[in-house]
Amino acid sequence: MRHKPTPSFILCLPLQVNSQQATQMHAHFECARQLYNALLAEAMKRLNRMKADPAWQVARSLPRSDKPARTQAFARLRTQYGFSEYGLHEAAKRLRTSWLASHIDSLMAQRLASRAYQAANRVCVGEARRVRFRSQGRGLDSVEGKTNTSGLRFHLQAGAQGNQGWLSWNGEQIPALIDWQDVVIRHGLQQRIKYVRLLRQRASSPQAKGADCRGFVYCVQLILEGHPLQKPKNMPGKGAVGLDLGPSTLAIVPQEGQARLLLLAEELAPDARKRRRLQRHLERQRRANNPQHYDAQGRIKKRQGQGRRVWRESHRYQKTRRRLATTERKLAAHRRSLHGRLANEIIRLGDDLRIEQVSYTSWQRCFGRSVGLRAPGRFVDAVKCVVARTRTAQLHEIPTHHTKLSQYCHACGTYTRKPLWQRFHCCPHCGLGSEVLIQRDLYSAWLASVLDPIRLTFPSRGQLGMHWQSMEACLSAALEATREHASAQGFLRRFGMPGVRACRPARLADPQQESVAS
After folding, report:
1. How large is the C-alpha radius of gyration of the chain?
2. Structure pTM?
């Protein structure tokens, strides 16, 4: 009988590794990489054989309306060719022999088999085009076990013996750095450990704090049973909160409280000049190390034949690449911290969050630079984590196909399409927004806060009108506060404010200018 899953959370602790332990762990990771590649190759071999069977095309030709028949046909093929998670577990027993068995235990091999099956299954169901084998340069930077009783496990001293903890793997005991003054860590270590995951991350250089001779730092992730600590200052409020997220902006309208229109991760200040200089320096070093791959005009030559093109990397090239990676890593860590802080501020406003469900992949194609810097999808993940940690709050993702919040007018109940450059709501049917500026994002967030997230319906027009009378001044105050702050910081254009070549409704144009133009 399958056990009922229990809630889990993750606690990360840094490890203190000496040179001997770092050498042995590097060998363990290399063995895990080779075993993973062998399991992935075996999974793709079984998948290709299964797709070559004529029964595969017969199963694909079955109508999608007949779901039981399709499921049964594909399940029969998977069983016949052993393309399943447990089928790869059996292959792991056969492949984990000789010297591999002394580095990788059976539970870790099963985890690697499950990981390889998930990658191949994404190709099988059409979610990916191909799989990526782990080269020796990229390596495999994470391994995990299945329990905390054998294989990769974490030990914690009892209260009478001390307060030290260490990671045990293949006879090695690697001490962990534990800050017992941190209430979050102290709460986590009081819970039961389900299993352990070991991570290896690249540092800025081998001389960085905690790094080994190859420039890696190690940490252990403890997957714990229960719920993470909820600090008293981050307890959820009461009421609904409407959110309207853009590629670089966020509008927050709670039912009770002050509305806000802000720039996502505003404190993030990347050094564009340093990044550009490092990228150019990296390109010059690549060209100097591989002149045979470029023609007389500096373009990369086309590959001749089926052979693989080999790129030489000097030590200085690797050093420059590490500097660039360190810059991006620090920027990502700062962005992640800002997202978490903003998510905690939002949860304090209410326990019913509502946001439109959009495709962040399409935003990457249209607004690549803004999305790459502000990471709105990563912010939504941070909000989901905060909501899950509270255990009482909920997040509703509203489908835009049915609601069309940016096109709806509550005064007349009509939908009017607006171009993206029009950042203010002005209804051509009833004239709402012709006298007072109504910012488009704030208005959509307010509509999300009054929408029924289950039925996807609005209240009656009379109830909306009464609620709008109390919220109109709040949205105007939020717009004015944003105007003052953005003017001081120099990013008025991001919010479509009038006066910086942004779109303004035609009815709000200056009458003197209209008379002159006429």
Report:
1. 28
2. 0.85
